[in-house]
Amino acid sequence: MDLIGFGYAALVTFGSILGYKRRGGVLSLIAGLFVGFLAGYGAYRVSNDKRDVKLSLFTAFFLATIMGVRFKRSKKIMPAGLVAGLSEHFLSGQFSHIWEVQVQGS
């Protein structure tokens, strides 16, 4: 079971709900819930097949890119910098997972 992936999905989903409660952005809530769902579904797919990491990689890369651009523009750590950093950290973990599964055959 991909606990890290499910945790990442839960944080993204919870963050979108928290952001909605603070700012009231409905579009941001919908986008955050959608990305959280994609991350959760990606974690589910990785749980079933350790080689099936494409959706998890795409979701984390997308969120890291979007929030990285927002962070660069706003210079605010919360939430853009935190989410971008978390997504990049998750991406590096996924790449090490790919290395472990595909190259070393674990």
Automatic annotation (TrEMBL):
Keywords: Membrane, Transmembrane, Transmembrane helix. One of its GO terms (cellular component) is mitochondrial membrane. It is found in: Membrane. InterPro entries: TMEM14, TMEM14_sf. GO terms for biological process: negative regulation of mitochondrial outer membrane permeabilization involved in apoptotic signaling pathway. The chain crosses the membrane at residues 24-43, 55-71. It comes from the Eukaryota. Belongs to the TMEM14 family. This is Transmembrane protein 14A. The gene is TMEM14A.
